[in-house]
Amino acid sequence: MKFCSQCGKPVIQRIPEGDNRPRHICEHCDTIHYQNPNIVAGTLPVWDDKILLCKRAIEPRYGLWTLPAGFMENGETMEEAAARESIEEANANIELEDIYTIISLPHVNQVYIMYRARLLDLEFFPGSESLEVRLFSEQEIPWQQLAFRTIHYTLKNFFADRDLGKFRVHTHSIY
Ligand code: ZN
After folding, report:
1. How far apart are CA 125 and CA 92, in angstroms?
2. Distance separating alpha carbons of residues 54 and 73, to the nearest angstrom
3. Ligand 1 centroid distance, CA of 28 (Å)
4. Which residue in 26, 52, 35, 24 sits closest to 120, CA to CA?
5. How does pLDDT run across 32-81, given as a tens digit for each residue?
6. Which pLDDT band holds residue 130 (cuts at 50, 70, 90)?
7. Contact between 81 and 114 (Cβ < 8 Å)
8. CA 25–ligand 1 middle distance (angstroms)
9. Model confidence at 171, in pLDDT bands (50, 70, 90)?
10. 4 alpha carbon to ligand 1 midpoint, in Å?
11. Is residue 106 within 8 Å of residue 173, measured between CB atoms?
12. CB atoms < 10 A from the CB of 37, how many?
């Protein structure tokens, strides 16, 4: 950040009184611009023994496969964000189930929150951010062409839990 979003004057970086880390501060209007992690919300849509994946039509990781997920918007709930991303990327009609993975990515200031979801029909088709959307069985998952380690982690746990017959929430950090 170079300029104050409140008044347009240049900002400086320093530790505010009573704080313990540098912040962008506007000395003109006294605004402290806090920056905090972004939440990525997504789903793991299931149909029988298969999972819906999307082939990315956008950078980063163009052409690689991912679960429907994206940045939460202001004014949304977690559940609304996860469902919206599933529509935007795959036009997938889903019913959300429980939270499944919560993954901290401190190096990029993100937290992934992925829900298990039930795919309600097979009417899905690629949204503008996807080249292709299709169902994969465990054997068909393109493990070497997954876009993100968060997706790899979520899928790996899903199949392991499914084998055990019991899903639990997994929290994890990726550095
Ligand atoms: Zn200002």
Report:
1. 7
2. 21
3. 5
4. 52
5. 999 999 999 999 999 999 999 999 999 999 999 999 999 999 999 999 99
6. very high
7. no
8. 8
9. very high
10. 5
11. yes
12. 12
Query: What are the residues whose beta carbons fall under 8 Å from the beta carbon of 27, sequence distance 6 or more?
Result: 9, 12
The whole-angstrom separation of Cα 153 and Cα 169 is 12
For residue 90, the CA-to-ligand 1 centroid distance in Å is: 41
Q: What type of residue sits at position 158?
A: F
Q: Angle 89-95-97 (CA atoms, 0-180°, nearest 5)?
A: 105
Strands 69-71 and 38-47: antiparallel
Average model confidence (pLDDT) for the chain? Answer: 97
pTM equals 0.91
Q: What is the Å distance from ligand 1's center to 107 Cα?
A: 28
Task: Say whether 162 sits in a helix, a strand or coil.
Answer: helix
CA of 32 to the centre of ligand 1 (A): 9
| Residue whose entry in the numeric block shows the structure tokens 């008044």 | 7
Distances, alpha carbon 117 to alpha carbons 65, 93, 108, 136, 158, in Å: 18, 10, 26, 15, 12
